[in-house]
């Protein structure tokens, strides 16, 4: 007999994830325990961008005004939202280096 997810979803013998001694189907485990993307509130499971203290889906980590990506990796933070240079508020805010920039370069 296959274990059942607490949401009454049968799980395949090799297709469940255990949390606190309880089996969860992969879908429910992801929905209940994965970090949430601040852009769409969906679970972040595989690919992500770590920025502003959060994990974002790559498709969601874009300017929150015009949806443009940050090809150079540089974005501006405006009220907790990533924005492009064009949409930063005046007075100018400091640019935030992208997640791939080494820490030593961020301090300069």
TrEMBL record:
SMART domains in the cross-refs: LIM
One cellular component (GO) term of this entry: filamentous actin
Single GO MF annotation: metal ion binding
One Pfam family named in its UniProt record: LIM
Disordered as annotated region, ranges: 87-108
GO BP: actin cytoskeleton organization; heart development; muscle structure development
Entry-linked Gene3D superfamilies: Cysteine Rich Protein
Annotated LIM zinc-binding domain residues: 35-95
Sorted UniProt keywords: LIM domain, Metal-binding, Zinc
Protein name (Swiss-Prot/TrEMBL): LIM zinc-binding domain-containing protein
Taxonomic classification: Eukaryota, Metazoa, Chordata, Craniata, Vertebrata
């Amino acid at each position: 007999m296959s274990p059942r997810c607490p949401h009454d979803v049968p799980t395949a013998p090799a297709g469940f994830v255990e949390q606190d001694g309880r089996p969860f189907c992969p879908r429910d485990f992801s929905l209940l325990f994965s970090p949430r993307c601040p852009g769409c509130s969906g679970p972040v499971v595989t690919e992500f961008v770590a920025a502003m203290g959060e994990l974002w889906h790559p498709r969601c980590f874009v300017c929150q005004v015009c949806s443009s990506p940050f090809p150079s990796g540089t974005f501006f933070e405006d009220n907790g939202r990533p924005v492009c240079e064009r949409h930063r508020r005046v007075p100018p805010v400091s640019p935030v280096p992208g997640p791939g920039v080494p820490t030593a370069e961020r301090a300069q």
